[in-house]
Amino acid sequence: MNITALLIIVAALLLLALIGGCVATQPKLQPISDLKSAHGVVLRGPFNHQDVFELDRNLMAFPPSVIKSISSVSLVYYDYLGPNEAGHCHHTRDICILSGHLIAIWHEAGHAYHFYLRMIKSPFDREWNELSKGLYDPNRYSGDPTYPKDGILSGYGSRTQMEDVAVYVEMIYHRLRMPATDDMPLFSRPEFKKDFRFRAKVNLLRKYGFIGEGDYKTFCKLVRLDSED
Ligand SMILES: [Zn+2]
């Protein structure tokens, strides 16, 4: 192949890595497990009964459309993931989760459903982008303490639109399903109330089905945000 073609392929791969964040590399699919998920999700790798129970309990957080968007969940060990990664979702919506970190499904399922919306050419991405145009930087330090700001919840979410969405999904479900621990004080920060973009993004997640109606209302009440009718 000539140099131009090679450069185009390298540029395309780089772009995929940039927009993909933790979702950029091909998962190594595991053999299908004998155990079944109560939600009908295809399980791969060395799941035991306790893992399936935990995964199913975590999946229960989501509307059926989000669960249906997941092609498979593989249970994996460290050598399948990058450093500091607890999970990973490929654009085929196959998810890898680190053994012992099944709570990461709340983030990775956000990616899977986002990929599904892209596949059906939903206007979700365009609407979200209107709120965050030019604000992402894949090289930003993921622990950047200046966040939340600009309608973005965390430094990790500020790296790409894909991660921004998944961080919202993860944190909203964390707040909803673990209200007693209240370890998400960022929703109490004044920025969250003052900047309309936070509320606009929560409303988009509801509009496009990342959060069901009941959960949307409960979440708005919990964090004292005016809900839309
Ligand atoms: Zn991610």
Provide an overview of this structure.
By secondary structure, this protein is α/β, with parallel strands linked by helices. It has 2 domains: 94 residues, no CATH class; 100 residues, no CATH class. The protein is built from 9 helices and 4 strands, in the order H-E-H-H-E-E-E-H-H-H-H-H-H. The protein binds zinc ion. Zinc ion binds next to helix 4 and helix 6.
Q: Name the poorly predicted regions.
A: 6-21
Count all strands and give the number: 4
Give the amount of beta strand, in percent. 5-15%
Q: Largest sheet, order of strands side by side?
A: 1-2-4-3
Alpha-beta classification? alpha/beta
Q: Calculate the mean pLDDT score and round it.
A: 86
Q: Any idea what the shape is? A: globular
Q: What is shown here, in short?
A:
The protein is α/β, with parallel strands linked by helices and 229 residues long. The protein folds into two domains: 94 residues, no CATH class; 100 residues, no CATH class.
SSE layout:
Blueprint lengths: L2 H18 L22 E2 L4 H11 L4 H5 L3 E5 L10 E3 L4 E5 L6 H15 L4 H9 L28 H17 L12 H5 L1 H12 L5 H10 L7
Parallel strand pairs: 1-2, 2-4
Antiparallel strand pairs: 3-4
This protein binds zinc ion.
Features:
7% strand; binds zinc ion; alpha/beta; single chain; 229 residues; 2 domains; 9 helices; globular
